[in-house]
Specification:
alpha/beta, seven-stranded mixed sheet, four-stranded mixed sheet, binds 5-S-methyl-1-O-phosphono-5-thio-D-ribulose, Methylthioribose-1-phosphate isomerase, isomerase, methionine biosynthesis
Length: about 425
């Protein structure tokens, strides 16, 4: 049972996607019933986040097949149709690997269904459509259970990094401590720990996935387990996924949180690390390659460098669907470049003289000289050397003797 905000609403034959460009002002769900609509929704970032992109693409085609928009009554024609629709969706956004991983899975299952069916004509097509739809629905369901597991593993990883405190707890501040037995020592006398604070970047929550989220899922789990003092989130320029979406999710969930601009992270670490026990930067991933280099929202690399300089753990939360074992190092990842208007213009709801936000009245305004040259890479690559832990639904990824991450242990079938 999925809890909380839902970016994607689905029942067989009907897909609705929350328009994230209207957030946090308005809650509008758009019907998505064709691959063209899904492509547009992904490209314009009304839905975004690596897992959510893959889910919407898979389910849009499942909806088409449920309504038999393919018009096929021979299995070869249907397989051709499905393949061409998936190839079309593949080109919507290039950096997140979840989309191509789910496309590969859907193609493989479709081919297998076509090869193994003993039926012919219409009944073979019905069987293949059924296999496709079930595979797409499983991508949605699996993502949610995956996120819950990442949340648990991530919270436990961060918990293990904490040292018990020896000084007596200041009674006025007791809310900032928790008491439990040290990890792996059930039954031993309880010790006291400081709650921890973390910084996250971009949006990796319910809005970027089927629910719960990855990096934001870890923050949710930390909060539920009573280990969290405070969550900081960056604004995440230029598209403001942090201020528009993550801060909205944190407020919605009543998680103690503060929004900062991207450029404030260094000041936050140097001035608040001790006071707030800032213990980790937790981010998601669009593509983690074979050695552990990770592509994620632009600004992630900067945060990793800053975290290293301040002795703060840098943690990547990534489902195995975001792992690309075909690519050896981060240098080969294709980085999407987006329109210059994302930097030179901004959309917001109008604020009246009384300070009230008029949610029905949004305006696009220029924030730079429109003639200026702009470079707008949507992602950057953080080298594996700067990453302390990669947390997947199968647990923490161990390191090889060379210092790279070793995915063989968690993904032997894809190694
Ligand atoms: O451009 P976006 O908003 O799709 O970028 C999203 C990110 O970079 C996320 O951190 C990543 O996709 C992981 S979402 C669980």
């Amino acid at each position: 049972m999925m809890e909380g905000l839902q970016a994607i609403k689905y029942e067989r034959g009907k897909l609705q996607v929350l328009d994230q460009l209207s957030l946090p002002h308005e809650f509008v769900y758009d019907d998505v019933s064709t691959c063209e609509e899904a492509f547009d929704c992904i490209k314009t970032m009304r839905v975004r986040g690596a897992p959510a992109i893959a889910i919407v693409a898979a389910l849009a085609l499942a909806v088409e097949l449920e309504h038999k928009k393919d018009g096929a009554n021979e299995k070869q024609d249907l397989v051709k149709y499905i393949t061409s629709r998936l190839d079309y969706l593949f080109n919507s956004r290039p950096t997140a690997v979840d989309l191509s991983n789910s496309i590969n899975l859907l193609k493989k299952q479709t081919q297998a269904a076509a090869s193994f069916t003993t039926k012919t004509g219409d009944s073979a097509c019905a069987e293949i459509r059924g296999v496709f739809i079930k595979t797409a629905e499983k991508i949605l369901e699996d993502d949610y259970t995956t996120n819950l597991a990442i949340g648990r593993y991530g919270a436990e990883y961060l918990r293990r990094q904490q040292m018990p405190i020896v000084t007596p707890v200041d009674e006025n501040e007791e809310l900032r401590y928790y008491t439990t037995s040290p990890p792996g020592t059930q039954g031993a006398p309880d010790k006291t720990y400081r709650k921890l604070s973390v910084l996250t970047h971009c949006n990796t929550g319910s809005l970027a996935t089927s629910g719960h989220g990855t990096a934001l899922g870890i923050i949710r789990s930390l909060h539920k387990m009573n280990y969290l003092d405070h969550a900081y989130c960056t604004e995440t320029r230029p598209y403001n996924q942090g201020s528009r979406l993550t801060s909205f999710e944190l407020v919605y969930e009543e998680i103690p949180s503060t929004l900062i601009t991207d450029s404030m992270a260094g000041a936050l670490f140097s001035r608040k690390k001790e006071e707030k026990n800032i213990s980790a930067v937790i981010v998601g991933a669009d593509r983690v390659v074979r050695n552990g280099d990770t592509a994620n929202k632009i600004g992630t690399y900067t945060l990793a460098v800053l975290a290293k300089a301040h002795g703060i753990k840098f943690v990547v939360a990534a489902p195995t669907t975001s792992i690309d074992l075909e690519t050896e190092t981060g240098g080969s990842i294709k980085i999407e470049e987006r329109a210059k208007t994302e930097l030179t213009q901004i959309t917001g709801a109008v604020v009246g003289k009384d300070g009230k936000v008029d949610v029905k009245h949004t305006e696009r305004v220029a924030v730079a000289d429109q003639r200026v040259d702009v470079w707008n890479p949507s992602f950057d690559v953080t080298p594996h050397e700067l990453i302390d832990a990669i947390i997947t639904e199968k647990g923490e990824v161990v390191r090889s003797s060379k210092g790279t991450f070793d995915f063989k242990t968690i993904m032997p079938e894809r190694w």
